[in-house]
């Protein structure tokens, strides 16, 4: 925890952990202000967890969430009101930038502008953009520079696209915008939840992954200005671009289920969709000797549609191997109507459903959790068409949260009516802005949202941008490929590979690996080969087995 003082009564920092509260208490902090919305990052504890720890230390806690890069005047006013609470006061967000920005705006009529900027700079925060707002010069925003290609998002899709572009043309000026310090191999979290990987195996420093030749702009995007070919960053800074790639990922909407945020990480409530909770999944699984285990899946779209049932299979396998399955009732609650969207893989999956004696509940959407009572509530439709709420007690529950595009994406002019970036599903080029492309989880192409999909999409986007730069009338086409390694037991996987319309798209001949059946070869691929392919191949611009084919449009 890196605490920075802005005054004798106010300090700021990056994201707090519940374990940090005791240190703040020792420093005499009496009030904490959280300026980071829940669900913004995969490694982020919830406000309720911070609040619980603070209450135990007699510290007040206030929730004033601010969207990254979008600090509004009314939020600054609310922050100023909170500064009247009992001090010392500590405010935090992802990096401390939003908290400092709120403070700077709140001090506009109380301190000289030069003092505000100097104090923030001494604490390590650049308030030059905010200074323009304070001084009433919002029309004089500073343009940092212009890039040939600007990439929003430093996840799998964004970094891979940058690497593929530079492998084709090292002379391009490319920048990646992302505020995160860490990068995660999220497909590994299923195995963390089964005690196979450690969390640390799935994490790298972001700085170590930025491709050589690309610049990393460590900031959050506030707004897109496609008509002027600019992006506005936090602090009212402008970045110009010739071509833009949007790879901003997806938001886990924990607050979309009533009561979930307050009980995550305790009361037997867990999720492999968060870095810090996947180990808790494994703790629950190995310690459960009897009772009821629930696994849930929300309405689509979600990141890796197979992940909710992967957790069920690996848990069932552990209980089966430890001869306690007969004492555990497994129930899978799916908001959808089928076990898996591609029918060819269902027979193999059903054999494991039967092996683990799992009860399948379709058209059941999790809407509320009472953690203290260990009860989950599901919305379902009766035979006569009426909606009803059914409750189910549990000893453990693995939850997959509903998912939406990030806030700054949904409020942008780039999206369709559902809030996803609107692209042509084969070229991944924006339907209205010809110099914009999008890929990964944030695009509205109707493919499975998986890292495997991004691995195929990145070279296609790179190839199409290069063709556009050179004025060539040829494009690469994306066929909707996605892959979902369904971990049905420890040591075996059903390797689902498919494209648009559910068409099977196996990457290996059937005699070598039949993806419709559980195989040890697919497990070896998942556990041993895919992580190094991700870190050393995909993120380095190595297009093994995914080099796109260009087709002349004329």
TrEMBL record:
| Domain spans labelled Beta-lactamase hydrolase-like protein phosphatase-like | 3-109
User: Which residue intervals define the domain FAD/NAD(P)-binding in the entry?
Assistant: 147-267
Which GO molecular-function terms appear in the entry? transferase activity
Q: Which UniProt keywords apply?
A: Transferase
Gene3D superfamilies, from UniProt? Answer: FAD/NAD(P)-binding domain, Protein tyrosine phosphatase superfamily
Family matches, as InterPro entries: BLH_phosphatase-like (IPR005939), FAD/NAD-bd_sf (IPR036188), FAD/NAD-binding_dom (IPR023753), Prot-tyrosine_phosphatase-like (IPR029021), Sulphide_quinone_reductase (IPR015904)
Q: What Pfam families does the record point to?
A: BLH_phosphatase (PF04273), Pyr_redox_2 (PF07992)
Q: Which PANTHER family match?
A: SULFIDE:QUINONE OXIDOREDUCTASE, SULFIDE:QUINONE OXIDOREDUCTASE, MITOCHONDRIAL
Question: Any idea what this protein is called?
Answer: TIGR01244 family sulfur transferase
Q: Which organism is it from?
A: Zhongshania arctica
């Amino acid at each position: 925890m890196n605490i920075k003082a802005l005054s004798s009564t106010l300090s700021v920092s990056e994201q707090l952990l519940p374990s940090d509260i005791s240190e703040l208490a020792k420093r005499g902090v009496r009030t904490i202000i959280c300026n980071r919305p829940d669900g913004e990052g995969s490694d982020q504890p919830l406000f309720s967890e911070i609040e619980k720890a603070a209450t135990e230390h007699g510290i007040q806690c206030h929730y004033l969430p601010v969207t990254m890069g979008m600090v509004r005047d009314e939020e600054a006013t609310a922050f100023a009101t909170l500064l009247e609470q009992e001090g010392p006061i500590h405010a935090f967000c992802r990096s401390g930038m939003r908290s400092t920005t709120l403070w700077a705006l709140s001090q506009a009529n109380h301190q000289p502008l030069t003092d505000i900027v100097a104090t923030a700079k001494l604490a390590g925060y650049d308030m030059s953009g905010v200074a323009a707002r304070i001084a009433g010069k919002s029309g004089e925003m500073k343009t940092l520079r212009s890039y040939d290609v600007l990439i929003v998002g430093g996840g799998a899709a964004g970094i891979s696209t940058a690497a593929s572009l530079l492998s084709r043309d090292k002379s391009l000026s490319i920048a990646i915008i992302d505020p995160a310090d860490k990068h995660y191999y999220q497909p590994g979290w299923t195995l963390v939840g089964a005690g196979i990987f450690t969390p640390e195996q799935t994490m790298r420093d972001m700085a170590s992954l930025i491709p050589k030749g690309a610049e990393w702009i460590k900031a959050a995007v506030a707004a897109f200005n496609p008509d002027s070919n600019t992006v506005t960053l936090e602090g009212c800074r402008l970045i110009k671009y010739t071509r833009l790639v949007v790879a901003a990922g997806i938001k886990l909407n924990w607050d979309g289920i009533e009561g979930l945020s307050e009980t995550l990480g305790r009361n037997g409530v867990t999720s492999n969709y968060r870095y810090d909770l996947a180990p808790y999944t494994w703790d629950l699984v190995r310690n459960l000797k009897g009772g009821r285990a629930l696994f849930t899946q929300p309405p689509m779209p979600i990141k890796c549609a197979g992940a909710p049932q992967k957790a069920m299979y690996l848990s069932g396998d552990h209980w089966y191997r430890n001869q306690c399955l007969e004492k555990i009732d497994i129930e899978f609650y799916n908001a959808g109507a089928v076990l898996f969207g591609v029918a060819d893989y269902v027979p193999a999956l059903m054999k494991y459903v039967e092996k683990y004696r799992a009860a399948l509940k379709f058209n059941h959407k999790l809407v509320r959790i009472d953690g203290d009572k260990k009860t989950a509530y599901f919305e379902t439709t009766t035979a006569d068409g009426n909606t009803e709420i059914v409750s189910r007690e549990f000893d453990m529950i693995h939850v997959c949260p509903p998912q939406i595009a990030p806030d700054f994406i949904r409020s942008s002019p780039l999206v369709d009516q559902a809030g996803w970036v609107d692209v042509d599903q084969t070229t991944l080029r924006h339907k209205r802005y010809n110099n914009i492309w999008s890929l990964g989880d944030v695009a509205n192409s109707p493919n499975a949202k998986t890292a495997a999909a991004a691995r195929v999409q990145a070279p296609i986007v790179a190839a199409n941008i290069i063709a556009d730069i050179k004025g060539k009338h040829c494009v690469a086409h994306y066929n909707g490929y996605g892959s979902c390694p369904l971990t049905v037991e420890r040591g075996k996987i059903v390797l689902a590979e498919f494209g648009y319309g559910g068409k099977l798209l196996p990457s290996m001949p059937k005699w070598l690996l039949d993806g419709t059946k559980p195989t040890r070869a697919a497990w070896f691929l998942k556990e041993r080969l895919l992580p190094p392919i991700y870190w050393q191949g995909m993120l380095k611009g190595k297009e093994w087995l995914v080099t796109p084919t260009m087709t002349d449009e004329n």
